[in-house]
Amino acid sequence: MRSETEVLQKASLIREVELKDIRDLARVHVDCWCETYQGIIPNTYLESLKYTDRQVMWEKLIPRRPELGATFVVEDTNGDVVGFADCGPAREHEHGFAGELYAIYLLKRFQGNGHGKELIEKVKETFKRLGHDSFYLWVLKDNPTKKFYEKAGGIYLKSQPIDIGGKELIEDLFYWELK
Fold it and tell me: How far apart are CA 115 and CA 142, in angstroms?
């Protein structure tokens, strides 16, 4: 008999975002921050995150696709959105990378099933389609899932400080070259 994890892995779907997904993107975005950064980012900041605020953000961002980038969602076997990746043109140009993976999130209970790797592959395909030869992602140094980015082929370049919720943290820059 197959485990629930095996069933989820084989039955989940990764697809391009639709406008109907905006509320789910907001929920996953906030829930992933709270799951991942508990004990890293101040609780007052995490408690201040609101679904409605993220929903407004996503309502502005999603319509800019697909000519500039893409957003992909992961659905579970019930059709519920449990993760996503969002990518587009680099916002910083001093490193020479054409694209940026702005965000990649997967609810904790769905991690370790290959969904993150599939999302990275979708991002790579998008950047190749757009003619980009590289992309980067900033990751908090204390992110407990940071090893995933190394396993997914990300190459560490540098670190820098960032203030989140009044606490100075360190973020690491990972990049991918597309061949």
Answer: 22
